[in-house]
Amino acid sequence: MIGTRPPYATEEALREFVQNALKEDLGPGDFSTLSTIPEGMGQSAKLLIKEDCILAGIELAEIIFKTFDPELSLEILMKDGDAAKAGDIGFIVKGSARGILQTERLVLNCMQRMSGIATLTHDWNSRLLGTKAKLLDTRKTTPNFRVCEKWAVAIGGGTNHRFGLYDMVMLKDNHIDYNGSITNAVKMCREYLAKNNLDLKIEVETRNLDEVREALETGVDRIMLDNMPIPMMREAVEIVNGRTETEASGGITRDVLHAVAETGVDYISAGALTHSARNIDISLKAVK
């Protein structure tokens, strides 16, 4: 299963990420490569997948190679979202030996991480079959790598939640406690949005059924059911009765996914998709 590239994964955003990552890795120069590999030497290398996974990062790998050296060429053998088996070859890159060596680690770091996230997301998403619930990621991501991690969630079949703090309003427990009530927080938020000509959806985090009822009265776009036991969550969905969207969040594990989905919630969000995914073993090997 593969999702399309998310709208925030623009060419500009990806190019900026790649340039910063290369700068971090290369610094004043890759002296191991510059000292041992003659300028102008042409070589090729294959991307070897060493364990079963949902492959992610092929498109990004091509962007990395081309950003560093437009003359590097890829023979792409597998695509993002493919179910790869140990021993599969994802692509063959050809061109400057120096270029291949200097981009190798960035390509692998990205692909190992993205494939791990896509694999975990695919596994979790498969547990929601037969329900209406959609699996969401969260902002619990690696700083400066969010665009790639959320892209990997989409590749794995998940749905991206808001990208940052600016593309959707989420009034969480601290916002509410600082304002004294959900009603006050939503009122202030709507006034701010109107004053600044912002058209954003509002989601409110709730911790109990009284807060669910209060949030429902404010007419917000989505109500988050945070860390609720499944029986309480089911009752909350019955109270809402389709009048707004519902999202289960907090303490979501693989084992409870289906039971949570069966409560009738519209969305299930899980930070584990990005903060707990295990990297997949992938390597780049010289073609002899």
From TrEMBL:
- Keywords for the protein's UniProt record, in alphabetical order: Glycosyltransferase, Pyridine nucleotide biosynthesis, Transferase
Q: Which residues form the Quinolinate phosphoribosyl transferase N-terminal domain?
A: 30-115
The signal sequence is none
Annotated pathway: Cofactor biosynthesis; NAD(+) biosynthesis; nicotinate D-ribonucleotide from quinolinate: step 1/1
Q: Which GO terms describe its biological process?
A: NAD+ biosynthetic process; quinolinate catabolic process
In terms of Pfam families, this protein maps to: QRPTase_C (PF01729), QRPTase_N (PF02749)
One GO term in the molecular function aspect is: nicotinate-nucleotide diphosphorylase (carboxylating) activity
Q: Where is the Quinolinate phosphoribosyl transferase C-terminal domain?
A: 117-285
CC annotations in GO: cytoplasm
Q: What is its EC number?
A: 2.4.2.19
- Coiled coil feature spans: none
Q: Which InterPro entries match?
A: Aldolase_TIM (IPR013785), NadC (IPR004393), NadC/ModD (IPR027277), Nicotinate_pribotase-like_C (IPR036068), Quinolinate_PRibosylTase_N_sf (IPR037128), Quinolinate_PRibosylTrfase_C (IPR002638), Quinolinate_PRibosylTrfase_N (IPR022412)
Question: Which family does the entry's similarity section mention?
Answer: Belongs to the NadC/ModD family.
PANTHER family documented for this protein: NICOTINATE-NUCLEOTIDE PYROPHOSPHORYLASE [CARBOXYLATING]
Job description of the protein: Involved in the catabolism of quinolinic acid (QA).
- Kindly provide the name given to this protein in its UniProt entry: nicotinate-nucleotide diphosphorylase (carboxylating)
Species of the source: Cruoricaptor ignavus
